[in-house]
Amino acid sequence: MTSFDYEDFSPNKIPLALILATVFTLFSKCHVKKKDIRKFLNHISVSYKAKIEEGDNYLR
């Protein structure tokens, strides 16, 4: 239960609010390790950052 396939959670597929709600629900109910949550959130933020930069480059 504590291992995730982080690639399934890309910004194109799931809105950020739903991702955060899922993470905090897992943290409070399933006792997921903090390290896993940190890794998961880091993956999400990197994905969003890349998407935003890609959009900026497109507008230039």
Break the fold down into its secondary structure elements and pairings.
Blueprint (H helix, E strand, L loop, with lengths): L15 H14 L4 H26 L1
Please identify the oligomeric state. single chain
Mind describing the biggest β-sheet?
none
Backbone structural class: mainly alpha
Tell me the overall shape.
elongated
Given as residue ranges, the uncertain stretches (5+ residues, pLDDT < 50) are none
Number of strands: 0
Helical amount: 55-70%
Strand content: under 5%
Distance between the termini: 43 Å
Number of helices: 2
Could you tell me the mean pLDDT?
A: 68
Gyration radius, rounded? 13 Å
Order of helices and strands: HH
Keywords: Membrane, Transmembrane, Transmembrane helix
InterPro entries: Ribosomal_uL6-like_a/b-dom_sf (IPR036789)
Transmembrane segments: 14-32
GO molecular function, one term: rRNA binding
Describe the structure.
With 60 residues, the protein is mainly alpha-helical. It has a domain at 33-60. Helices cover 67% and strands 0% of the residues. The chain has helices at residues 16-29, 34-59. The mean pLDDT is 68. One of its GO terms (cellular component) is ribosome. The chain crosses the membrane at residues 14-32. One of its GO terms (molecular function) is structural constituent of ribosome. Keywords: Membrane, Transmembrane, Transmembrane helix. One of its GO terms (biological process) is translation.
Can I get a quick summary?
The protein is an all-alpha fold and 60 residues long. The chain has two helices and no strands.
